[in-house]
Amino acid sequence: MSSRLEADHLYKVFGRRPTEAVERLRTGADREELRADGTTAAVIDASFTVEPGQIFVVMGLSGSGKSTLLRMLNGLLEPTAGHVRFDGQDLTALSDRDLRAVRARKISMVFQHFALFPHRSVLENAAYGLAVQGVPRAEREKRAAEALELCGLGGWEESWPDELSGGMQQRVGLARALATDADLLLMDESFSALDPLIRRDMQDQLLQLQQTLKKTIVFITHDLNEAMRLGDRIAVMRDGRIVQTGSAEDILLRPENDYVASFIQDVDRTRVLTASALMDTGATADAPRCACETAAPDTTFAELCALSARLSHPVRVVDGGGRVVGAVDRRSLVGFLGDEAADPSPCDRPEEKVTAHA
């Protein structure tokens, strides 16, 4: 079972007198004040927890500090202040030797630009982390072949990296991380170098693998739609600070400041929102109790629109036990598209196929 990851008030400062700079930040100094003195505060007071089996996405623009934060999580960068705890250990307190052992066995990283060895076969690349661990050749090749199969690369073991497409090379990088059976996967903009269609395929692949493997994953991206699609929880970074943490629905419906609100304004909400976010829980008593079409809490926005177009009353939302937990009316569906007075055509699609619950 994957283990819990905790980041506790992490700071990373580059430049002169970094410890003094942290104290200045704690007492109210901002990033620009430090920059004027030749000091760069890359990460400022970052705290979060990633529960076992979660995909935790850190999202932000270039220069926001997200990649620096990731590198502190596995000790590639030493925090100026703060702690990283994983699997019951304070990684920031370990010796270099012990930290290398943790990285070799418990933490794997998937890089943006594949980082494959051109002179090694696909199988040898996938087995590299196991070779570092000292796993015997027969066992590491077996485990690497199994990981390649999981990633859809069965039959490519003897190929060379330059014979593979970009998407296939990234699958090799993912297989290499999975072969070590590490509990924690750190993914640094791992899909951003791929073409859009291949990128979506890789997102699908990751989500499918996660259903089975249930790894603890920290995924870095600057792409908001990717964050919304992958993240169980999302942290939004700006100028070295985490400015909001929550589910995709939390961030879309309850942005904590103007920056987050402007960041999400172009997101296609219909791809993210579900009945659990849209329903009126106070409407359960008034919802019709007849044996008619209903929605589940995870029913998508498009499915809700199709149901609403067929019904003359709000769509009932029922839980797994058949209990009514809320209702969604057409006005709220149109309102969540951003215009209360808009024509309700987005919800007039009775031709869409919907799996309804009686």
From TrEMBL:
The keyword Transmembrane does not apply. InterPro entries: AAA+_ATPase (IPR003593), ABC_osmolyte_uptake_ATP-bind (IPR051921), ABC_transporter-like_ATP-bd (IPR003439), ABC_transporter-like_CS (IPR017871), Gly-betaine_transp_ATP-bd (IPR005892), P-loop_NTPase (IPR027417). One of its GO terms (biological process) is response to osmotic stress. The keyword Nucleotide-binding applies. Keywords: ATP-binding, CBS domain, Nucleotide-binding, Transport. PROSITE patterns: ABC_TRANSPORTER_1, ABC_TRANSPORTER_2. Gene3D superfamilies: P-loop containing nucleotide triphosphate hydrolases. Residues 5-264 form the ABC transporter domain. Signal peptide: none annotated. It holds the Pfam family ABC_tran. One of its GO terms (molecular function) is ATP hydrolysis activity. PANTHER family: GLYCINE BETAINE/PROLINE BETAINE TRANSPORT SYSTEM ATP-BINDING PROTEIN PROV, GLYCINE BETAINE_PROLINE BETAINE TRANSPORT SYSTEM ATP-BINDING PROTEIN PROV. Belongs to the ABC transporter superfamily. This is Glycine betaine ABC transport ATP-binding protein.
